[in-house]
Amino acid sequence: MKDWPETTEEIELIKQRTLDNPLYKNFLISEDSKMTTIVIQIQTYSSVGTDSDALDGFEDDAKKINATDDKQYLTDKENSEVVASVDKGANKYRSPDFEIYIAGSSAVTHFLKQSRIKDVRRFLLLAFDYDDPDKDDDQWLYLPALKKTKRIASTDKSDSFMGSDLTYSDMTSRNLEDYDYTFYEKAKEKK
Q1: How far is residue 49's CA from residue 64's CA, in Å, rounded to a whole number?
Q2: How far is it, in rounded angstroms, from Cα 178 to Cα 117?
Q3: What is the SS3 assignment for 32?
Q4: Using N-to-C axis directions, what is the helix angle for 105-120 and 76-91, rounded to 10°?
Q5: Which of 155, 188, 158 is nearest to 171 (CA)?
């Protein structure tokens, strides 16, 4: 907005223009004018290891805009820093009669990760790895918050471990004899 409203009449005029616009009403601002949306578009790509400019991404040249082959997406740490910074700014204005919610994929990723970290601290995994190949390993999951113990059946070992990319099978030890591998000493590596 180039010219900020200074009088009550100017504010009312903007409010009415906004509510009369079908693209804004109930999308960016509620019908009763008590809720609005502020969109903060964050930088998608990481600046780690690059000589970045604060104005990167604002080029007029379409070739530069679409040249993303060598760019890396934001790291988890960078994403969390952005969300924490936005949340910190929002906290300055939050009050009982003025609620502010943070949303979007970056915020969801950040808050889910924080929640998962807290959840992971609240469990214990006990695994018995048997040397006998005919005997299945035993695993138990203890959830202190629920005061419950759950046995992980051998048929469930390939299931996702707490919603991650790991499986319950990944939580057991490995016998190196079960794999074909070659070990190269650092000094003997050919580059």
Answers
A1: 19
A2: 33
A3: coil
A4: 100
A5: 158
Strand 148-152 with 124-128, pairing: unpaired
CA angle 181, 182, 186 (to 5 degrees): 135
Query: Which residue do the tokens 């997406």 mark?
Result: 73
Tell me the one-letter amino acid at 164. S
Is the pLDDT score of 19 beyond 80?
Answer: yes
Residue 64 has pLDDT above 60, yes or no: no
In sequence order, what are the beta bridge partners of 127?
139
Q: How far apart are alpha carbons 86 and 91 in whole angstroms? A: 9
Enter the pTM of the model: 0.44
d(CA 20, CA 14): 10
Mean pLDDT of the chain: 75
Torsions phi, psi of 32, nearest 5?
-90, 5
Interval 115-159: pLDDT, tens: 767 666 667 777 787 778 788 778 888 877 777 888 887 777 778
* Helices and strands, number each (H, E), in the chain: 4, 3
Q: What is the pLDDT of residues 97-114, one digit of tens each?
A: 778 888 887 888 787 777
